[in-house]
Amino acid sequence: MAANEIALSTSLEDLGWSAFFEQQRTHVDSHLTLGRVCLSHREHYTLLTTHNPLQARLGGRLRHRATGPLDLPSVGDWVAATPASDGHAAAVIHVFARRTQFLRKVVGRRTEVQVLAANINHVAVVTSPNDDFNPNRLERYRTAIRQGGANVLFVLNKADLRNDLDGYLEAFAKIDPSATVLVTRALEGQGVDALRSYCATGETLALVGSSGVGKSTLVNAMLGRPVQRVGKTRETDGRGRHVTSHRELFLLEDGGLLMDSPGMRELQVWSSDPQQDTFWDIASLANSCRFRDCTHQHEPGCAVQRAVDTGELDAQRLEAFHRLQQENLQLEERRQDAISSKSKHLSFHRSLKNDDEQDG
After folding, report:
1. What is this structure's pTM?
2. What is the per-residue pLDDT across 101-121, written as a single tens digit (0 to 9) for each?
3. Domains by residue range for the chain, with CATH
């Protein structure tokens, strides 16, 4: 069910409301309208409510209080808005604390976080058995999803591109042996019901992945009608063209919510401890290293390096571990530089203010 086709009998629970949000409700004026963001364009939002969808703008006070993107509404967020009246649009003045979130660092050199999805139960990372399949990138997705508190699924779409999928399934198992892997052929409907089972009433499933892997086709198949444009597939590599340009939350007719998102060219984890999360196997081996602060590079008695030498651990996996560690160090350095720069900027303006007061 699309955003503009919400049944009048829809309850807050149907939209994902739970005791977690109800506990926060005591701090919100009872006259405000509760809604869930299903579309966002700059400072304008479409909200799913128990009645018709509501168009709302960002309230001035909320904009002023926000210290960064984490404080502003994103698709999937629960918000409270003033009702529209006398020609004035509804205004979002409160964002409920998130139960889960999917974050990344913004593309480029800016040290800033981007909220990709909020309050999702499951995130399905969609890929395909062609040049798009990249275990290192899949590991990053897994780290970011688990870090935000959601359950991770892997979806291998366009399964008809290869006769033998065993190598791909083995790669998924190396990344996360506990994660569910679904094999789908969206155009034929194969595996769609299994994926839809993660959209039980009141639960939210988000689809993420690169451009051209068939996310929009999966969305259309799960909704039962073409609500998302689908790009033509190139015969050379079986990849589709990038079509989806924004994140959107849909309400399924038989319950549950589904979020589609644009393809991502890159995913840099906002913050993480790669050893304790994604690289669980390396973390386990590290317990046997001679030195507690072992970097698993050149130290004597390194159990991780020994596992690589014996073939117990894939050398490429250790390389991916070191690469993610280095990126996190660089990200933290840039973040500290940004904090220092902001502090100096504030100190400079305070000094100007003090000088003006003394001159006065």
Report:
1. 0.74
2. 999 887 776 768 889 999 999
3. 13-95 (2.40.50.140), 101-260 (3.40.50.300), 280-354 (1.10.40.50)
